[in-house]
Amino acid sequence: MVVTLHGDLGAGKTTVARGALRALGWTGPVKSPTYTLVEHYLFSRLYFYHFDFYRFADPSEWETAGLADYFRSDAVCLVEWPERVAGLLPPPDLAITLSYGAQTAAGRMLVLAAHSVAGERCVSAINDTLLPSLPAA
Ligand SMILES: Nc1ncnc2c1ncn2[C@@H]1O[C@H](COP(=O)(O)OP(=O)(O)OP(=O)(O)O)[C@@H](O)[C@H]1O
Ligand SMILES: [Mg+2]
C-alpha cells in the first residue's frame, strides 16, 4: 500500500515513519531519506520502503532510477513530500497530513484520509489502538 505523509519541513513525517517501523519491530536506525530518496527495510512479512522526495527535481529520474518498481502490491511505501512527484506516484491508500502550532502545544495534529479499503482498515486500526492512549484534547 501507499501512504503519503504531508506537512511542512519539520512537521514530523519522518517521525511517523520511524514510529511505524518501531511498531513493526524494527530496532535498527531509521534515517531520513532526504539525500538517498529511499531507504529499504526488509521484514520477513513485508517490504517496507520509506521515500523522501523533497530533493526530487527531475521527473525523468522516476524512470531512470526505476522508482515505479517499488510500488508493488507486496510492498508498503511511506512517502514524504508526495507533492514533488505528483502525476508519477500511484494514488495513496492513506494520506496523513501533519501540522503543528499553538493549538497542538509540543505535539502534532494528524488528519487521516483513507482512499481505499486498505486505507480504511488502517484508519480503523489507528482509531482502535492509538486513540485510547492519547491524552484528552
Ligand atoms: N509528535 C511530535 N511531538 C513533538 N515533537 C515532534 C513530533 N513529531 C516530530 N517531532 C520533532 O520535530 C522535528 C522534525 O521531525 P521530522 O524530522 O519527523 O519532520 P519531517 O516532517 O520529516 O521534516 P522534513 O520535511 O525535513 O523531512 C524532530 O526534532 C522531531 O523530534
Ligand atoms: Mg523527513
Instruction: Tally the beta strands.
Output: 6
Classification by helices and strands: alpha/beta
Bound molecules: adenosine-5'-triphosphate, magnesium ion
> Which spans of ≥5 residues are poorly predicted at pLDDT below 50?
none
Q: How large is the count of helical segments?
A: 3
Helix and strand element order: EHEEHEEEH
Give the overall shape, derived from the CA principal axes: globular
Strand order of the largest sheet: 2-3-4-1-5-6
Radius of gyration: 15 Å
Percent strand equals: 15-25%
Major pleated sheet: 6 strands, mixed
Helix content: 10-25%
Mean pLDDT: 91
Please report the distance between the alpha carbons of the first and last residues: 30 Å
